[in-house]
Amino acid sequence: MIANWDVARGKVVSPSIGPTRTEQDFSEHIQRTIKIDEKAEWIFIVDQLNTHKSESLVKLVAESCGITIDLGRKGKEGILQSMDSRADFLSDESHRIRFVYIPKHTSWLNQIECWFSILVRRLLKRITVRSTEELSQKILNFIDYFNQHFAKPFVWKFKGFKDHK
Predict the structure, then answer these.
(1) Distance of CA 143 to CAs 1, 10, 17, 110, 125, Å?
(2) Tc1-like transposase DDE domain spans which residues (predicted)?
(3) Which of 44, 67, 90, 156 lies in the 20 to 30 Å Cα band around 116?
(4) 134 pLDDT exceeds 90?
């Protein structure tokens, strides 16, 4: 499953459920998400997974933002050369669509990960299914129900660590 969390409204947006989570799957998911409002500014908070720094994602962002510069060649030169160069391009604050990469081992900073925890506790631990199709449908039904009845922004209560002198 690939999904987005609308931080301001506290809703799951544009869930994708499929047998894989490949570079192509993620790129198609982002493309479908930005089609919700093709003129809007989009900021995606993501972890360090390689599919979040892919060639296809760079090409999608460039095309969607009207960026016509030469992107180079993957593994050879330019923006497409490496994961680092692709991540730099994808996180450029001047782009209408950009990605913010959270540090490794900080999944709790990514609010969709917090919501996945809710999904596990409230649905997945409690169900029995006979097929992947049934599982997918139950997850989508849960998302619809959650968005209608429980959607609200997360309230962060962590105030930092106390100094232990």
Answers:
(1) 12, 12, 12, 18, 15
(2) 15-135
(3) 90
(4) yes
Map out the domains of the chain with their CATH numbers.
1-156 (3.30.420)
CA distance 38 to 65: 10
Q: Partners of 16 in the beta sheet?
A: 2
